[in-house]
Amino acid sequence: MKKVIVISLGGSLIIPEEINVKFLKEFKKVILKNTKTHKFVIVCGGGKTARKYISALGKFTQDKKILSFLGLSSTTLNAFLVSAVFGQDPSKINYENKFLKKQLETKDIIFDTGTGYRPNATSDWAAAEIAKQLKAEFINLTNVSGLYDKNPMEYKNAKFIPKISWKEFDKHAQKIKYQPGMHFVLDPTTSKVIMKNKIPTYIIGKNLKNLDSFLKGKKFKATTISG
């Protein structure tokens, strides 16, 4: 039986500034060559598209619900894009999570829009909820290679954390104040879902060799969040 993996594909990887075609080609290659042993549910983040729209609308309103809906629309757009990269029909993308188990009986790769508003939540939260439903492992694919004790993009001496408990990670996450369009390694609401449901979680960076190694059971660099 194939193992089900839920991937939250960070918008920062899909569209850091412009759409990262090179990355998407490599991502497709890695996923497809691992479908003999795995099935995938992929939720896409909003990335730069979401932040540009939210920044512009923020000049007119500070209503977090409205701003968040705009971000969610960007995640749907990116899901359409990436599903089409995989040769799927974007018009048939998944909106109803209650049908996921049935769909996985016949499909190896499902793209989920991650839509559905919840206060202070992101596409990572949507992916974690799916992992909870499917009792699957959860991979957060983002633009940093894992969790650090401080922002590695700002501090050269930031220390990499290879493993952390759900409880300790949640302590880190709860210090973050949510704002629509902000970039998190994992947001506070997602952290609660992971901890409460004891979901094995891996934060893996943009070097897709690590994702491939993880799927093949080989040594990989990432932060593991577990018991």
Could you please describe the fold and organization of this structure?
- Helix 2 (21-32) packs parallel to helix 9, helix 6 runs parallel beside helix 8 and helix 7 packs antiparallel against helix 8.
- It is globular, with a radius of gyration of 16 Å.
- The two termini are 25 Å apart.
- It is built from nine helices and nine strands.
- The protein has a single domain, classed as Carbamate kinase, CATH 3.40.1160.10.
- Helices cover 41% and strands 17% of the residues.
- The protein has a seven-stranded mixed beta sheet, sandwiched between helices. Strands 5-6 form a two-stranded antiparallel ribbon.
- The model has no long low-confidence stretch (mean pLDDT 89).
- It has helices at 11-14, 21-32, 47-57, 64-85, 100-104, 123-134, 166-173, 188-197, 208-215, and strands at residues 3-9, 38-44, 109-112, 137-141, 147-148, 160-161, 163-165, 201-204, 223-226.
- With 227 residues, the protein is α/β, with parallel strands linked by helices.
In short:
With about 230 residues, the protein is α/β, with parallel strands linked by helices. Helices cover about 40% and strands about 15% of the residues.
Provide the CATH superfamily: Acetylglutamate kinase-like
Number of domains: 1
- Report the average pLDDT across residues: 89
Number of helices: 9
The computed structural class is alpha/beta
Spatial separation of the terminal alpha carbons: 25 Å
Which word captures the global form? globular
Rg, rounded, reads: 16 Å
What is the C-level CATH assignment? Alpha Beta
What proportion of the residues is helical, as a percent range? 40-55%
Q: Per CATH, which architecture?
A: 3-Layer(aba) Sandwich
Say what the CATH topology is. Answer: Carbamate kinase
